[in-house]
Amino acid sequence: MHGSENIKIYLQPLGILRGCIASSAVKSGQARWLAGGALAFNMVRIIFRKYGARCREELVPISRLDHVITDLTPVQQQEISEILHRICGDRTTMIYQDATDFTWQRPLIQGIVNVTPDSFSDGGRYDTKKQAVDHARDLIAEGADIIDIGGESTRPGATRVSIEEELERVIPVIEALSDISVPLSVDTRNGDVMAAAIKAGATMINDVSALSHDSEALGHMAAEDCPVILMHAQNAPETMQHNPRYNDVVLDVYDYLEQRLSVCEGAGIRRDRLIIDPGIGFGKTVDHNIALMANLSLLHGLGVPLLLGVSRKRFIGQICKETAADGRLAGSLAFGQAGYDQGVQILRVHDVRQSRQARDCWAAVKY
To answer: Exactly one of 313, 314, 328, 356 is catalytic; which is it?
Structure first.
């Protein structure tokens, strides 16, 4: 193909199947397993991008993929083979604490505990140690697989807090939850908070800046052995909703996360410790968010577990004309299922009991 050296290729799994249909399709060569989990896919969209713009797309059944790519260059054929391997490959079982292992056979529920006065949905409700600890225990009782504690609001327009204040908010809560039976994640973009949180007992880090905000964060995480969630966000919370723009939001988010995975590996953080999050609502318009929700499956090409955080987000309110964040439960559940249908491994939520019920009902349907 002329000029193929300037073309980047993406592969998006489509036609996603479950249950006995998935098993039969895989056995007959009509489908491939998705991310080593319980879903399979029987089609792929091959996307060709040149100088930032899509220049060609092909929708190809899995059974014909080998035949269709024969007219591509050997380099492009190898690139497609490598992406397909990442899409299909088992997501490494991550071990947390001493007894819990996640094999990604069904989506996990990550419950949110905001120890802040100004978070967009529940700011001020759990900003004392006792309130936050009690809420975390309630979420575990409701079925949370992971608890995510944050001491700095990253909502659109939020202002920064000092490192000292963030530590004062989250460390006592972490220490008070030392006896819990589920992994404890800390939502922070500051390296010193990451290090202190892990020392206090946290077992996962969730960074909205994908370890790019603090120059020390990569070093802190390379020195540890815990999972790290890398999220996409365009600009800082103070300005991220000021007219966000992309050449192609789906491919731009993919490229950013691919680049951050590479940076983390280069810093000594193993790829099997990394999880990605497309950052719904972080520097994105309603149309950007909808485009990402419609194409989440593309991100499996990066070969790591995929987290989706859509709970109570403002764009749900804009779609449904619901101004109250806690009135967006139905929309949150609907978008959560859209994530499940595309193989998302973790769903980050405020409403654990309802989300767990929806997840379990979704998983019970075997077709």
So the answer is: 313
